[in-house]
Specification:
3-stranded antiparallel β-sheet, alpha+beta, 17 helices
């Protein structure tokens, strides 16, 4: 599904005229004079704490509460990077980060540069709260620019065609909630100067065969189940989970943390198919190769996707003597600091361990004006994408030389994933979070090679 193209100028003008006359039903900048104070008071009277929804929608609340949407404004990495961003830009970034991670915090003017995250209202802290999604003015959604226009009439919309009435809010069916475009305000990310998209999950999906297959974001990230959508409501076949599981999990105490970690592990085990091929036997001293193929056959977009600057998906290959355990070849191992052995490893830079020249790493590399890699993705002028598109494969060949004597070799392969590498945490002064980092094994395989 695509949203309607931008309306012709004349209609837009007419529409704006109409909107400005229909008192206080929108968050348009054209709202009546009297200014910001009134608007903020109005926002506060309409935008509601998720806890209020919990009284009638307990399942939706309990699930959402564990999600990265609820975590978006608590996320210590987010808060640290936002602060670094303001410092590096002389506060020019302003609302750039928060407008997506907590659209209401921006509208309520709670987050000037240098804001104190402990002093925020419950609503601002709730990040991407229920009302962010259920009050958004769908036709005003702009790809990569978050949500900024909301319905202030308090009508909550989603995809129940015949909602039962209730004492708290009016309900209305909007078919857009069943489609990926509703996510595109945030899951594509337009750079601060609006010149390029730096994160492109929605675009990757748009360009994938999933569109023709009718498989939307919701089908994988909000699976349907049979149950009630509200206390006392009818049993329906099509109620949707609100866990929004991806690859991230909370790094601080947070509701459902252990369950989220388990769910991430399960999703990652069901993302791709790994196949390894190697000759069954080779002659002593001969060259041969181990081939690893990763097919992205179950992910609705590239893998990794979104925040690819921090993500690491990589291949670990260890070829050893099956009997003695002696290692003949390895790639994808970590250094003493837990980093992969590339140019980001302090031990490689200091000559303590050798560089892993065969490393197969999937991620994204942001580059600045001069083509240099930067740690700060929002400053990127270009992005080098080392990702695998939906239904495409990556093939990695490791050329090897067999030992000079007969032996039984074992080639052990693991496809591994983590959401952050340790060097990033060290660079931003978040060493305290290092023990929270986890590596997930997505798939593994073992091949034996007889050397005659
Ligand atoms: C990131 C956006 C987002 C957030 C945050 C969100 N929802 Fe939803 N919600 C949706 C979408 C999208 C649907 C429809 C899914 C579909 O039809 O495929 C939906 C559906 C619903 C429905 C209709 C029944 C159903 O499950 O389909 C209810 C009720 C609901 N949400 C309540 C809530 C409550 C309460 C919260 C907060 C605790 C919340 N939502 C947070 C996006 C969101
Ligand atoms: C007093 C109880 C009550 C409260 C409080 C409440 N809701 Fe509802 N809501 C309902 C009922 C009942 C339905 C209809 C369920 C059905 O027909 O299956 C509903 C339906 C919805 C729908 C689906 C609309 C549609 O047609 O698809 C959304 C979205 C929703 N609520 C969001 C929220 C949000 C967000 C909050 C908190 C800001 C909230 N609700 C608070 C009772 C409530
Ligand atoms: C208003 C902005 C916004 C909207 C709209 C939005 N998201 Fe998100 N989403 C985010 C942010 C921000 C995060 C990450 C928060 C963090 O980790 O700090 C996130 C995280 C996620 C994650 C977890 C990613 C991970 O790595 O674990 C999934 C999955 C997800 N969103 C799916 C969806 C889907 C599906 C929709 C549409 C129904 C949607 N989102 C709509 C902003 C949004
Ligand atoms: C066919 C199922 C499927 C569909 C459709 C799908 N996803 Fe995903 N998504 C996955 C899987 C599997 C993962 C975990 C692997 C990965 O990181 O890419 C994932 C991961 C993610 C992540 C975390 C990515 C990362 O590497 O940091 C986000 C964010 C996300 N999805 C959002 C979306 C959005 C938005 C849409 C719609 C435009 C969508 N997904 C469509 C299956 C799907
Ligand atoms: C257009 C909306 C948008 C903007 C603007 C935005 N983010 Fe995000 N952010 C997201 C989404 C969506 C995700 C989840 C993507 C994923 O998991 O792949 C996310 C995830 C994150 C995460 C957690 C995951 C990770 O690995 O990094 C951090 C930290 C983060 N963003 C920091 C920032 C900072 C700092 C800024 C400002 C410089 C910013 N974001 C601006 C939408 C946005």
């Amino acid at each position: 599904m695509k949203f309607l193209p931008v309306l012709p100028a004349l209609t837009t003008l007419l529409l704006l005229a109409l909107l400005s006359s229909c008192d206080k039903t929108s968050t348009d900048p054209k709202d009546p004079p009297g200014g910001q104070v009134d608007s903020i008071a109005l926002y506060r009277s309409v935008f509601t704490d998720p806890a209020r929804c919990a009284s009638c929608h307990p399942s939706h609340y309990e699930e959402w509460q564990t999600s990265m949407h609820a975590y978006a404004m608590t996320d210590p990495v987010f808060l640290t990077l936002t602060e670094i961003g303001q410092q590096r830009s002389n506060n020019q970034l302003d609302q750039f980060c928060v407008k997506c991670h907590s659209p209401f915090a921006t509208l309520l003017k709670e987050v000037p540069p240098g804001f104190d995250p402990t002093g925020l209202s419950t609503l601002a802290k709730a990040g991407i709260s229920c009302d962010v999604c259920h009050l958004v003015k769908v036709p005003e959604i702009r790809r990569g620019e978050s949500f900024s226009k909301f319905n202030l009439d308090g009508v909550r919309r989603a995809s129940i065609a015949d909602p039962e009435p209730n004492s708290f809010h009016e309900s209305e069916f909007d078919h857009a909630y069943g489609f990926s475009d509703i996510c595109s305000g945030c899951h594509d990310l337009l750079s601060p100067d609006r010149s390029r998209f730096l994160e492109t999950t929605n675009t990757e999906w748009d360009d994938s065969p999933y569109v023709a297959m009718g498989v939307e974001c919701q089908d994988c990230h909000m699976p349907a189940y049979r149950g009630t959508a509200a206390i006392g409501g009818p049993v329906r076949d099509n109620v949707h989970r609100h866990y929004f599981v991806g690859v991230d999990y909370p790094l601080v105490d947070f509701p459902g943390k252990a369950e989220t970690i388990a769910a991430v592990g399960q999703l990652l085990e069901n993302s791709v198919t790994l196949t390894v091929s190697a000759p069954g036997s080779v002659a002593a001293g001969d060259t041969f190769s181990v081939q690893v193929r990763i097919k992205n056959d179950r992910t609705g977009h590239d893998i990794p996707s979104g925040s690819i600057f921090e993500r690491q998906m990589w291949v670990e290959l260890i070829v050893r003597n099956a009997l003695s355990g002696e290692v003949y070849f390895s790639s994808g191992l970590l250094d003493g600091n837990g980093d992969l052995r590339n140019h980001h490893s302090e031990e490689v830079v200091n000559g303590i361990v050798a560089e892993d020249s065969a490393l197969a790493l999937f991620n994204g590399i942001p580059r600045d004006d001069s083509g240099q890699e930067t740690l700060f993705f929002w400053e990127a002028k270009s992005v080098q994408r080392n990702t695998i598109e939906a239904f495409k494969s990556a093939i990695i060949r490791y050329p090897l030389t067999a030992p000079g004597q007969p032996a039984d070799l074992e080639a052990a392969v693991r496809l591994r994933f983590r959401s952050f590498p340790p060097y990033v945490f060290r660079a931003i002064g978040q060493e305290a979070l290092l023990p929270e980092l986890r590596i997930f094994d997505m798939a593994s395989a073992l091949q034996t090679i007889t050397v005659n």
